[in-house]
Design brief:
Protein name: Lysophospholipid acyltransferase family protein
Strand content: 15-25%
CATH topology: Glycerol-3-phosphate (1)-acyltransferase
Keywords: Acyltransferase, Transferase
Structural class: alpha/beta
Largest sheet: 7 strands, mixed
CATH architecture: 3-Layer(aba) Sandwich
GO molecular function: acyltransferase activity
Number of domains: 1
Oligomer: single chain
Shape: globular
Pfam families: Acyltransferase
Organism: Plantactinospora sonchi
Length: about 240
């Protein structure tokens, strides 16, 4: 990544975040070669802690790409903060409004402009008690279908030791071990050119989440549970 292309605010963000994370964490990075060096890409991490964005941003930046995260559009309207987020090329997204379609267009444009867009398919930190992935939402699948961009799975284990969402405890001790691994693109070729029906998007999302579950099992060296039970799935669909 050419430093001269970052501009002042992105260089400033790097100068603050990267040294902090270098002290705060002891890192094991795997699979950086799976993140394309250029071109539009959709990066889909698991989400187990509020510390995830710091850890994943460090990993993606070290891989040679500038990560573009989604943020609530209301935050981008906050004086100063919103401008900095804009200058750092983060992406405002309207949620639950008629502007959601416009947000999708913004994401598509970022991908077609060659951006590395980061989408947490779970939408929020997992509610599974052992921090395994839960059922995903369809935004990443829809974006993959409309753009044809590769979907790169990224799994993390360790950010929960920085902030554990179950206990709400923060650890400031240095050298917290974190592991981040990227894998080859999720094979979504069977749905290429399909209409974005709910069934198609659900199937694509399931493929993404199953890959994340299996990759996380590998770095945790544990046997994963079923991704979700049929009962839980039906309950989510009714909610």
């Amino acid at each position: 990544m050419a430093r001269r292309r970052l501009g002042f605010w992105r260089r400033f963000a790097v100068s603050v975040v990267k040294p902090t994370m270098a002290v705060w964490t002891r890192r094991t990075w795997r699979g950086m070669e799976h993140i394309p060096a250029s071109g539009g890409v959709i990066i889909v991490p698991n989400h187990l802690s509020h510390a995830d964005p710091l850890v994943s941003a460090h990993f993606i930046y070290d891989s040679g790409r500038w990560p573009q995260y989604l943020g609530k559009a209301s935050v981008f309207r906050v004086p100063v903060v919103g401008r900095i987020l804009h200058w750092c090329r983060q992406i405002p997204v309207e949620r639950g409004t008629v502007d959601a379609a416009r947000s999708l267009e913004t994401l598509e444009r970022a991908i077609r402009d060659g951006g590395a867009v980061v989408i947490y398919p779970e939408g929020t930190t997992t509610r599974q008690p052992d921090l395994w992935p839960m059922r995903g939402k369809t935004g990443a699948a829809r974006l993959a279908l409309t753009t044809g961009a590769p979907v790169i799975p990224v799994v993390m284990w360790g950010p929960q030791k920085i902030f554990d969402p179950r206990t709400k405890k923060v650890s400031l001790r240095p050298g917290i071990p974190v592991t981040v691994a990227a894998g080859p693109p999720v094979d979504l070729s069977r749905w290429a050119g399909a209409a974005p029906s709910r069934g198609v998007l659900d199937e694509m999302t399931d493929a993404i989440m199953l890959r994340l579950r299996d990759m996380l099992a590998e770095i945790r060296d544990e046997t994963p549970p079923p991704l979700w039970s049929a009962q839980a799935k039906r309950g989510e669909e009714r909610s």
